Amino acid sequence: MTSTKQLFKFGITGLINTVLTYIIYLLLLHPTNATIAMGVGYGITSLLGLALNNRWVFQTGDSVRTVAWKYYTTYVFTWLISVIFAHLASDWSFLDSRLIPIISLMITVPTNFLLSKFWVFNKHNLKEVRHYGNQ
Questions:
Q1: How far does CA 88 lie from the centroid of its chain?
Q2: Neighbour count for residue 112 (Cβ, 10 Å)
Q3: What's the chain's Rg over C-alpha atoms?
Q4: pLDDT above 60 (res 64)
Q5: Cβ–Cβ under 8 Å, residues 20 and 27
Q6: What average pLDDT score do residues 69-75 get?
Q7: Which of 31, 41, 63, 131 could form a disulfide with 21 if both were Cys (CB 3.0 to 4.6 A apart)?
Q8: pLDDT one-digit tens code per residue, 75-126
Q9: 62: number of CA atoms within 13 Å, CB side?
């Protein structure tokens, strides 16, 4: 599958997750609070994102368990990039703070896609590891 097609599917998955997270957030906001609502939303949609990326976007055919730790490591890494960027950019007087999340996404989405494609869901690397591990 071409990288362009994978990037498109990756974007669709991200859009679905974003909308679903927001819906879950709105449904849980009043019975709980914003922190719980957001946490549950992210938790559920991260599992959906893992499954969709594994089966639909990158089509590895591997079980979710084999790639989950890499997926969540990438998830945390790009979250850290986002938080660090927001912290640094908030001190830049020339940048409107309302643009920080947009610019952050311009950094983290490609980073997440590349890590997902070449590290998390890369079957070639998995085959090489299995091959060399059996020697």
A1: 22
A2: 23
A3: 17
A4: yes
A5: no
A6: 94
A7: 41
A8: 899 989 988 988 899 888 898 888 888 898 899 999 999 999 999 998 765 4
A9: 19
Token pair for 104: 């952050």
Q: How far is it, in rounded angstroms, from Cα 41 to Cα 27?
A: 10
- The tokens for 77 are 């890494």
Q: How long is the chain?
A: 135
Q: Categorize the per-residue pLDDT at 132 as very low, low, confident or very high, splitting at 50, 70 and 90.
A: very low
Helix 34-52 / helix 3-29 crossing angle, nearest 10 deg: 150
Cβ neighbours of 109 (radius 10 Å)? 15
Percent of the chain with pLDDT over 70: 90
What distances in angstroms separate CA 127 from CA 45, 57, 123, 135, one per listed residue?
A: 29, 19, 6, 13
Contact 67, 54 (CB under 8 A): yes
CA–CA distance from 51 to each of 17, 30, 54, 92 (Å)? Answer: 12, 29, 5, 38
Written as six digits, the tokens of 114 are 């590349």
**Which 3 state secondary structure label does DSSP give 39?**
helix
Alpha carbons 115 and 106: distance in angstroms, whole number:
15
